[in-house]
Amino acid sequence: MIKKYMLPLILLLLMSCAATQEKIETVFYPALPQNPRLQFLTSITSEDDIGKEKSAFREFLLGETKSMKQVARPYDIASVPGKIYVSDRTYKKILVIDFDKMEFNFIKDEAEGSLDQPAGIWITPSGNKYIADFGRKQIVVFNDKDEFVTAYGREGQFGKPLDVAVQGKKMYVVDFDNHHIAVVDLDSGETIHTIGGSGAEPGKMHRPSHIALDTEGNIYVDDSFNFRIQKFSPDGQFQKVYGYPGDTLGGFARPKGIAVDAEGYLYAVDTAFENVQIFDNESALLLLFFGGFGPNPGSMYLPNSVYMDYDNIKYFQKYVDKNFNVKYLVYVGNMLGEHKINVYGFGEWTGKPLPDVPRRKIELD
Asked: Of 123, 182, 216, 330, which has the fewest CB atoms closer than 10 Å, so is most exposed?
């Protein structure tokens, strides 16, 4: 029984808990006084990080606790307005982060739609989710209501599908074991042709793992064991290479997730360097990198995925510096550490003009 003399103390603690908010250090890339193009905004690990209300009285009794609903090991990320979808390797499910409801849930994968080893995820403009499941050796499809629709991949069609992308009536399946991209007709489910094949020469691949498409339909593939990213035309013709094996900026040690923004800039994760490098589309030169290992805000811990989100900026606007204008969000998934999804904003400085300082990297337009 709570005694009367404790009530004022409890009320004070309740008010204090409700009013307290964690202050996030402002981190820019590149750092001021250079012209910043990215700001680290926040990280998402549990429901608490998207505004889920805590019980102040429970915290008073039990101490500070985190929600049991958490991101564990995010392999890949995609989004729709109001939601983020995360392929989680620990749960072996697709986690749904709902900003409006401020809660985490899973896609209900049951019966024919049961997931085994989900990896890459792709969401079409209509809201259909295509999930590469290397346990099933299939691509499993859910609709805009997260209901199972169908699965692609007859016996022997795919070896180890790790990622998938869809444009129009074509589906591009990254086959890690067969060293190629299978181009599949969505209507028939049959493989039309393949891109790549085992080898190290341009146009060939060794253990491809991730895929991205740009606004013109060009195909980008993480050619992981050749330590490079390759670009192909929509019909599968080799175009160019980004990066090389090496431990200097512009090189790769363990390339992972890739993404391309609306202006054609290529983002590439490197798990070993624990950063993301941004490359120019025309020259294939490195423009900027961000992240890095450590305990600081914006640092990464075994990053595996990167994704651009143009639809959900409003949910993170409170973190944006008053002198910075965000054009789109960049999510980076960390397989280890306390902060599982780092959220950055790509944009431009709108404050007072910055002094001219030497710049080691080419400016992003």
From this structure: 216
Residue whose token pair is 């989100």: 309
The answer to whether the CB of 182 falls within 8 A of the CB of 172 is yes
What pLDDT is attached to residue 9? 43
Per-residue pLDDT, 21: 44
What distance lies between CA 301 and its chain's CA centroid? 14
> CA triplet 363, 286, 30: central angle to 5 degrees?
50
> In a 3-state reduction of DSSP, which class is residue 61?
helix
For residue 348, give Cα distances in angstroms to 29, 259, 261: 11, 20, 15
**Binning pLDDT at 50, 70 and 90, where does residue 358 land?**
low
Starting at the earlier edge strand, list the strands of the sheet with 286-291.
255-260, 266-270, 275-279, 286-291
Angle (nearest 5°) at CA 337 between 38 and 74: 75
What is the β-pairing status of strands 255-260 and 238-242? unpaired
Task: Copy the structure tokens of residue 260.
Answer: 């391309």
Paired strand residues for 29: 38
* Cα dihedral value 319, 321, 324, 329, nearest 10: -20
